[in-house]
Design brief:
heterodimer, A: alpha+beta, Immunoglobulin-like, Arc Repressor Mutant, subunit A, 3 domains, 4-stranded antiparallel β-sheet, 10 strands, B: mainly beta, Jelly Rolls, about 0% helix, elongated
């Protein structure tokens, strides 16, 4: 039943053996699913291959496949239903999914009396992973950690991405794990494009946040220094011209006596001015006056 | 043109049918699931001759029980009908409002639905 891989070129092969009851049409259809959001979309335009099932229940078809893995859906229809029919439910389904790439040979088996089941798909490790994943996804109790674990151990990037797409409301630790997993994946994988974008956006968001915090801190520091300088300036402006002259002389290293000589005033007058200066500027000694040094220098320069 | 069939909204069942003729609708039908409900049983059948229909059933948590889209376009630009059947009985974790969402764009087709809360 299986055709040799040699000669398939840019195609893959699907074969199968199904036992359908008389309510079903002896035909099968293969859809290529362009994205995870389309897994339950049906339309004639999605069907890429179809064929007849022989009286023994066998079928096969080669279909166009890409070099990278793609997701496909194989479905069957009941009598009276259009070719693009999708039946969903725990009691009855009419489809299974499979992963294939060029030269792959996929097989599907359904036994009479049993429903169409995902476990009937075989043909590659990717599909073993896909079968496990879809079985888990159908279970209400399957949580994020299980999906992340499946993605971590999956040999198929596509199955891994599908597992990640099933996660919801991730914790910070789970997000970090997923981000780490995605860093190993090909950014050009069409199926994961939006997932990769979503997590990269998260990274950008973190960068923007860190940048914002740094900018805010810089603005706060600048504001603090600006207002501190303004406060110093305001205090400085409270001095008389004579007091400013005396501060200038003190900061240039002159003693009170030298300042009195320079300004041609009494030493006691200088001492009185110095006491007033200390009181106005809120300083206790000459060393404290150093904070005004830059201000005086800049004013002298300007 | 849009025709609504008989819509029953008894205690814990909603049931109805919508017939569409080149119609566009965007509608959410809420369904209250009271405490003590064991499961929700649904039977939704959608058929489109022309256009695109999306039907979604969401649980109170936002989890989707199904999200199905039917399109009728063919690769050659024509139209072929599409059909969807969603029949299941899903367990209820938490009571609350389920929502059956329908979006149809220029659709000629039918939507039939029956959603029931099953108590033990």
């Amino acid at each position: 039943m299986l055709a040799p891989a040699f000669g398939l070129g840019q195609r893959a092969m699907l074969s199968g053996r199904v036992r359908l009851d008389s309510g079903w049409v002896r035909k099968f259809y293969v859809c290529r699913i362009p994205g995870f959001d389309y897994m339950f979309t049906t339309s004639r335009a999605l069907i890429i291959a179809e064929g007849d099932i022989d009286t023994a229940g066998n079928f096969s078809v080669s279909f166009p496949a890409t070099k990278d893995e793609s997701l496909y859906r194989l479905h069957f229809i009941r009598k009276g239903d259009p070719a693009s029919t999708l039946i969903i439910g725990s009691r009855d389904v009419n489809h299974v999914f499979f992963i294939a790439k060029q030269a792959d040979q996929i097989h599907f088996e359904k036994t009479r009396g049993l429903p169409i089941s995902q476990s009937g798909i075989s043909g590659s490790k990717a599909n073993s992973g896909l079968n496990s994943l879809l079985r888990m996804a159908g279970n209400d109790t399957t949580g994020n950690n299980t999906f992340i674990s499946i993605a971590d151990s999956s040999s198929s990037q596509l199955a891994g991405l599908l597992a990640i797409s099933r996660t919801d409301k991730l914790s910070i630790g789970q997000k970090e794990k997923v981000t780490d997993l995605l860093s190993r994946y090909d950014a050009h994988n069409a199926y994961g494009a939006h997932i990769l974008q979503e997590y990269r956006s998260t990274d950008y968001w973190k960068l923007y946040l860190a940048g914002g915090i740094l900018l805010a801190a810089a603005l706060l520091l600048y504001g603090y220094l600006f207002y501190k300088r303004r406060a110093v300036l305001k205090t400085w402006r409270g001095l008389s011209q004579r007091e400013m002259d005396i501060v200038g002389l003190i900061l240039s290293g002159k003693s009170n006596k030298e300042a009195a000589l320079a300004l041609n005033i009494e030493l006691s007058t200088v001492k009185t001015h110095v006491n007033n200066i200390y009181a106005k500027l809120g300083v206790n000694n000459r060393k404290d006056l150093d904070r005004y040094k830059d201000l005086i220098n800049s004013r002298a320069g300007g | 043109m849009l025709a609504l069939g008989a819509i029953q909204a008894k205690a814990q069942v909603i049931k109805g049918s919508i017939s569409l003729r080149d119609s566009t609708i965007n509608r959410t039908i809420p369904f209250d699931v009271p405490a003590g409900t064991k499961s929700v049983k649904y039977d939704i059948k959608v058929y489109a001759d022309i256009g695109e229909i999306t039907v979604v059933l969401t649980e109170p948590s936002g989890k989707r029980s199904f999200n199905v889209t039917l399109g009728t376009k063919t690769s050659s630009g024509g139209h072929e009908p599409s059909k969807g059947e969603m029949i299941d009985n899903v367990s209820v974790k938490t009571p609350g409002t389920w929502n059956f969402y329908i979006r149809a764009e220029n659709v000629t087709g039918t939507i039939g639905y029956e959603i029931e809360a099953i108590k033990p």
